[in-house]
Amino acid sequence: MMSWIWLGLSVLAVVLELATPTALVSIWFACGGLCAWLVSLIRLPDWLQIVVFVAVSLLCMLVVRPVAARYLRGNIEPTNADRVIGTIATVTRSIDPDRWGEVYAGHTYWSAVDRDHRLIEKGSRVRVLAIEGAKLIVTEVKGDSV
Predict the structure, then answer these.
(1) Local structure of 102: helix, strand or coil
(2) Range of 90's domain?
């Protein structure tokens, strides 16, 4: 009886996987179900079949998913906003450790915070390190290190 349940669960997981636009949603349970089905064919106890199902499903999710997601993600095209990363910007409103400041970078005004949570005065020059949400992460440029 359990062998039919595991086989049905595996087929259902594959159908759900094919029906979802996002890749890698339920395929783990299909793998776990197939392994539990194999265990049921050699007539091992139901509790062991359940343990195999859970263990294989979790293992597939934890090990295979990160690798597969990297390959399924495809090429990531940078946006226009990404072009400011690495550029030099001018602070237009002082950046304070307790509140966002503002910088002018890439012909646009951006909210900004210092990477090390330091005070950066208005008029200083900063290098854009990253974009995090709607703000830039910056670090002050000292002297001639532009």
Answers:
(1) strand
(2) 81-140
Identify whether 146 is part of a domain. no
Q: Which residues contact 103 (CB under 8 A, 6 or more apart)?
A: 89, 90, 91, 92, 95, 109, 110, 112, 126, 128, 136, 138
* Residue 55 banded pLDDT, cuts 50, 70, 90: very high
Q: How far apart are CA 41 and CA 2, in angstroms?
A: 9
State mean pLDDT over 140-144.
Answer: 79
Tokens of 107: 């012909």
Is 145 inside any structural domain? Answer: no
Phi-psi category of 137—alpha, beta or left, where left has phi over 0 and alpha has psi -120 to 50? beta
pLDDT band at residue 2, thresholds of 50, 70 and 90? confident
Could you tell me the two tokens for 79? 């946006």
Query: Cα–Cα distances in Å, from 87 out to 70, 109, 122, 140, 141?
Result: 28, 14, 17, 12, 11
Q: What is the pLDDT of residue 45?
A: 93
Say if residue 91 is in the same domain as residue 68.
no
Question: Domain for residue 85, yes or no?
Answer: yes
